[in-house]
Design a protein that fits this description.
The chain is mostly beta strands. It contains three helices and 15 strands. The chain is 15% helix and 41% strand.
């Protein structure tokens, strides 16, 4: 009897160990398959004095920008998806709240850069004259940029029905605003969602992590043939009222509004002639 118990314990432990290993391998396989499809977006903005006869721009405390944000970009065959944090970075900057009601100053994007997940160097990400489509009101947008990534990225699954996919999160040890050259790590969960006609958002559980969340997305696998699986982008992760949700990619509504905002003693003028060179200052926070 004792031998049987020992044998059963050994079999159980072997199966448990194998299961743990399989989970680890699945995460690594998915990570390797999707990591080239995501990147980090850095957006800086300045305040423009709309009452001045010639353009006058302001940064914050002698910086070449007033504020900046970092967020997730996702490559597709039509361009790339990004969220409102990159489109309206001033809305996520506490310093800007004091300026929001003024009609004198308007926030403008002054620098746009990106880096791939494994890189530490940021490159220019074009944003002027790029068609922007709002796909979820004040949440997500599609930049129809066919040049930067050569139309190489995820295909998008717009269909209804039960999806047996994966929630993919990118996290860093500390917020990218504190150290912008960090390499994000992935957290991947299996999740089944039922996409219904006319329903846009689906609440999900928070990821089990204490790290800073850069963003996330929902992918659905398709077996094309023996040994070949394609992952389709089916949703984008959004945090609303401190709850995470998957936002379906299923409709396009065009809007592009830049709001007018305001000023304070910490505003510092930026020389317009040196403005463009200042924008190229990169990796300011490698602490």
């Amino acid at each position: 009897m004792k031998k049987i118990l020992i044998t059963l314990f050994c079999v159980f432990w072997a199966l448990f160990s194998y299961g743990q290993l399989a989970l680890s391998q699945n995460q690594q396989l998915i990570e390797d398959a999707v990591k080239e499809g995501v990147f980090i977006i850095q957006r800086c903005y300045q305040l423009q004095d709309t009452t001045a006869e010639t353009p006058v721009y302001y940064g914050w405390n002698n910086l070449p920008y007033f504020g900046e944000t970092f967020s997730l970009g996702i490559r597709t065959t039509d361009g790339y998806y990004f969220n409102n944090k990159a489109y309206h970075p001033w809305n996520y900057d506490a310093k800007f709240e004091e300026y929001e009601q003024s009609n004198q100053f308007a926030p403008i994007i002054s620098a746009s850069r990106y880096k791939m997940a494994d890189d530490s160097i940021y490159k220019t990400l074009p944003f002027k004259d790029i068609p922007i489509t709002e796909i979820s009101t004040h949440r997500f947008y599609l930049a129809q940029d066919s040049v930067t990534f050569n139309k190489k990225g995820f295909s998008v699954d717009f269909s209804n029905g039960v999806k047996k996919g994966w929630l993919v999160w990118l996290v860093t040890d500390k917020p990218l605003e504190e150290k912008n050259d960090q390499t994000p790590t992935f957290i991947i969960y299996r999740s089944e969602l039922n996409f219904e006609q006319g329903k846009e958002t689906y609440e999900i559980k928070d990821p089990a992590t204490q790290k800073a969340i850069v963003g996330g997305f929902y992918i659905v696998p398709e077996v094309n043939e023996i040994g070949k699986i394609t992952f389709h982008l089916s949703g984008l992760m959004n945090n609303e009222n401190d709850k995470w949700q998957v936002v379906r990619i299923n409709s396009y509504a065009n809007t592009n509004v830049i709001r007018t905002q305001s000023q304070d003693s910490n505003l510092t003028p930026i020389d317009i002639n040196s403005n463009n060179s200042n924008k190229n200052n990169n990796n300011k926070k490698n602490r």
